[in-house]
From TrEMBL:
This is Uncharacterized protein. Residues 43-64, 340-359, 694-715 are annotated as: Disordered.
Amino acid sequence: MEETDGDYEDADDFDDGFAGPAHRLSRGRRYLIYAPGGNINAGSVHGDQRVENTGGAAGPGGRPVEAHEGPLSALEILDARAGFAEPDWFPAALAELDTGVLFVVGEPGTGRRTAALNLLCRHTGGSLDLRALDSDVDLSSWRPTHAGARGYLVYGLLPKHPLGPAVIANLRRLLSDAGARMVIVLPDDPELVRGLSRDLRVSPVRCEPPSPRAVFHARFEAAVPSPAERDRLLARLESGLLDELLTPELVPAQVAELVAAVSGAGDTGPDITGLRDRLSFLAEEEAPELIKKLRNDPDGLAFLLATCVFEGLDHRIVREQAERLLVLANGRLDAVLPERGDIDGGPVPSARRDGPRPNPQFVFRRSLDDLLPMVRARCAPKELRTGSGYTYAVEPVRFTRHRQGETVLRHVWRQYGQLPGLLTDWMDNIPGNQRDLAEPVGRVMGMAAGWGGGRRALLHIRRLADSEHATSRTIAAYALGMAAEDPILASEVKHHLTEWSSRTNWRRRSTVAYACGTQFGASRPDVAMRLLRRTYRGREGDEYVVAAAVRRAVCELFAAGSQPTVFRHLAGWADGEGPEADLSLWVFPHLLWEPSWFQEQLLSAGECAEKVVALVRQALNDDDLFDATRDSLISWCRMAAWDEQPRTAVETLLTALAQEMRHGVLRLFVDMDRDDTPELAGRDLARHALNAWRKGEPPRSGPTSVLGGPDAHRQ
């Protein structure tokens, strides 16, 4: 069975169906904020203030991307430094890091990664040139390959690459030669710690977090610099509430949520009086109670599970999916089956033994207002969202408590052995025309792979990867991205994606491309770009589905903050021959719709600036790519008309292009000259270049720049 028209990817569709970690690329000058599961602070804003609400299992979340392989973003490093409460063991860890390699062990949520980033940053004198290595790295064969990197973070190590004293000694030598240090973060396993001390003769540092109150005050001060504003926000809390919440067992991740909730309560911010009801770290004790309360209510159970998976979506969708689950369950959500008479074994129920039974088809069976408080959720005010070329309003259903959905699903997945099968069947059968449901379903499936574990943890996801339905393959991609957040599963995810990327099966390769546009690729951009190159085989027939997915993933990675990595790969591909050269030029015009990074390169004569000009010229000279390239560049000129820096970047690019007036550049300049936009940056340059070309005069000359173009237009 082939893809239906509804599943087929449109070359220019960057908005529908599949949405990765980045914002949609904007084709015009109108912008719409689309933040399902997120908070928008409309009140007073303080320096470094942020609110992160990852919602339930469904929400795409506001969590920033954490690099697992490749360069660590300056944003993540600075975020880790802001409001960092230095623990007592920090000085000893810094001293141990002098040896070159430091092992940090701790439980999830204790601030291991934040502490590791601060250790590397502090030890390197505040350097932001830090890189991440994935959990499947083989340190016995690894070598520092980036001259500027001063620190490496390894988040988990797999036992398939055992370490020995010789490996550690060689690692220290390599790091010393490179002027770098390495922190390896591991789980707090007593046997593991003993083995490290005994076999490797190293001293692992146990990540014991500072007191919750110290973490709270450090983060709160960073989030709200004004002492008067901090006092005002704290005064709004119920008397004794802060002492009640800051219990000794609270870990830094939970304290950070409390800080975000309190600091976000500005003049028009969240209602601080309901703080206790929203905090996610109180959800663990609530989940069993919630299931017990709804045990004899199949409608309530179905609505609870649907809200867990589809939190943040419109209430009509949540109700629809709850009804679908009820039908699919066929009695499996009923604690007690209704008594049916079968006197003498006859098939006809006896009216004498059959009592009154609720009619499942009764249209007034349960109102939305009955169901919402039953599962401790609410229907939020209308939000505007955007689809394929249109805007629509939704009334999203959200739990009162943050992360309630994930907690409930984890509880029932582990505690009720027959439920995962029912939920899997339900999530597998998402209608093909409801592609917006793929991400929440994929997130749950990815998390469930970690909850279940074992050798078959990814088996069900692998089946979806080969589905004839694009929606199922998209679900598989999101699930793989979520599963790869687990250091143990990350290795298996990469193994499967690498294997599928070289298959002849185009469906498997489309799943690889989708996955590279999710959190998996955003946290491993270099790995993702290599996978995308292997996946692409042209644009003929079914391969067009793969090609469109590849292009979308490249654009997602670029917009998510990996511009240097993405561009270096594209530039390298463009210099070669074969499918990768074709892919590079086909994707490039679409990246130009996100101009900030390109303009920064042109303004600063950055390391990629010359290649940017070369690729622009190459794309303009390609008849098939000219229209897309011209449209994006003229969009630059329109947006730069009233802004000095973008105008300078546009003029720098046009001046460099004018040095070689081939047909593509000529067509661009002619179109700029004829464009009916009143104010168009660079139009005078284009007209001057055209006049000089018609007269046979050389282009404007001036001081030579790294772009090979003059600066005379500034004189």
